[in-house]
Amino acid sequence: MDDENIIISKKKSKKILLLIFHLLIFSVLLNIFLVINLNNAKYTGDALRLINSSGNILIDSDVIQNNLNDTFIIHYDGLKDQLLQEIEKYNATDNVGIFLQDIHTGTWLGINEREGFISASLLKIPIMMAILKKVERGEIKLTDKITLTQEELNNQYGNLYKEGAGTQISVEDLLKAMILSSDNTAKNALVSQLSNAEMDAVLNHVGISMGNDGVISPRDYMRMFKALYYSTFLSPDLSEKALDLTTNTQENDLISAGLPYEIQVAHKFGIIEDKKQLHDCGIVYYPNNPYMLCVMTKDIELSDSKNLIQNISKEVYETIDKIENKKA
């Protein structure tokens, strides 16, 4: 082989080696990309079990499209009459507000659903959302310590006040105390970290206004749980964290008491004993078809309100269970 052919052969070899090198680099990068995406897909499927961040938000609709594009109507046939009969047992027709909505279809049922009730501890949900928004923006961390002040101690609900002024507690532990045991001291400590604008941002996002009296309707209040379920205000991870906290609350003798033990509920209750107001609102995770339920009561003996909320939840569940079984 002459010198010219040798040079040409060497150039060809270099090109082939360079091509092989680039192909190897591409293959490695492709594998890394696939592994990351598979891991993300697995995390989303397994870990984010309480939210639906698909962006498919249906509100106040009575119509659903199935996979075959056949339109059919889903409604709570006869349920409203049943609930009214239950309410009438306590002579409380004007003192109970109910809002029920199917998460997948937007179908809803209401009784005094626009009536105003004093929110009480229900306000701890938007407080939690505002705090987690600061976490999302990197302004605070869940591990950050907050020092309790004398003004924040409150013995009306919860036991955190017993720790005393000067105690340092992490943001995450304060959130847990505020949601799990509805602790007022934890609530006060977290509110001290928020501006009025940050609280208003939550309410503005869900499209509601609330005066200084804290009055809100069952229908409006459920927009906060919708914002968490559809992850429209917080990131999916933080929306999941918020709802996960609400599934472990110590108050399980209201909406949850009317359901089978295995049904999970993300909810928040509110109570004002001297004004005879008791509420419970949240998401009932019926298998493959969660629904939202909010029941608010006023001017009813608290023991009667508790029984009423349990019975309403039970009748709603049984009706939806029948609907789902017919579809199956």
Structure description:
The chain has about 325 residues and is α+β, with helices and mostly antiparallel strands. Among the domains are: about 45 residues; about 180 residues, Beta-lactamase (3-Layer(aba) Sandwich). It is about 45% helix and about 15% strand. The protein has nine helices and eleven strands. The strands form four sheets. The protein has a five-stranded antiparallel sheet with strand order 4-3-11-10-9, sandwiched between helices. Helix 3 crosses helix 6 and helix 6 crosses helix 7. The longest helix is centred in the first third of the chain and has 45 residues. It is globular, with a radius of gyration of 27 Å. The termini are far apart.
Topology:
Elements: H1 3-47, E1 63-65, E2 71-73, H2 79-88, E3 96-102, E4 108-111, E5 117-118, H3 124-136, E6 145-147, E7 168-170, H4 171-180, H5 184-191, H6 196-206, E8 215-216, H7 218-229, H8 236-246, E9 264-272, E10 277-285, E11 291-298, H9 302-327
Antiparallel strand pairs: 1-2, 3-4, 3-11, 5-8, 6-7, 9-10, 10-11
Helix pairs in contact: 2-9, 3-6, 4-5, 6-7, 7-8
List the defining traits of the structure above.
five-stranded antiparallel beta sheet, 16% strand, 328 residues, two-stranded antiparallel ribbon, 45% helix, Beta-lactamase, alpha+beta
Summary of the model, kept short:
By secondary structure, the protein is of the alpha+beta class. 45% of the residues lie in helices and 16% in strands.
